[in-house]
Each structure stands twice: as C-alpha cells, then as structure tokens.
C-alpha cells in the first residue's frame, strides 16, 4: 500500500500513534477479508462488502495523513 510513501510510512509508524492504529486496523481488515473470501472464516457477502468499505475509508484516512505529512516535510 502506497509504495511511494514507504519511508514516510515507516517514520510515521514510529512516531504517530493515530497513524499506526489506522495502519494496523487496515492490515487486520485486509487479512480478515482474505480469510473470508478463501472460506477460512465464515462470512456473508454483505459482511465482506461492509469490511471492504471500512477498509477503503481507512485507506483514504491514511492517504490524507501521508499527503499532509509529505507536504509538511517539503
């Protein structure tokens, strides 16, 4: 996710607890969705779609934080 911000992500994960929490939640949702789609964990299609929407919202929030932090360092 966001390979162009790899260094910034590493820096923020070490210093920004809010960013780290969002990042970890995004990764947890990603894994849960993969498990559900692979039928490792039972779920309805509606549940999977809701988790995908939540994951997308987190990704948007993470991107906004990254763009702001990137602009501040410039």
Please describe the topology of this protein.
Blueprint: H1 6-15, H2 17-37, H3 45-73
Helix pairs in contact: 1-2, 2-3
Question: What key phrases describe this protein's structure?
Answer:
74 residues; mainly alpha
Structure in words:
With 74 residues, the protein is an all-alpha fold. The protein has one domain. Helix content is 81%, strand content 0%. The chain has three helices and no strands. The chain starts with 5 loop residues before the first helix and ends with a helix. The model has no long low-confidence stretch (mean pLDDT 96).
Tell me roughly what share of residues is in helical segments: over 70%
Question: Helix-strand pattern, N to C?
Answer: HHH
Structural class, judged by helices and strands?
A: mainly alpha
Q: What overall geometry do the principal axes of the alpha carbons give?
A: elongated
Tell me the number of structural domains: 1
Count of helical stretches: 3
Task: Summarize the model shown.
The protein has helices spanning 6-15, 17-37, 45-73.
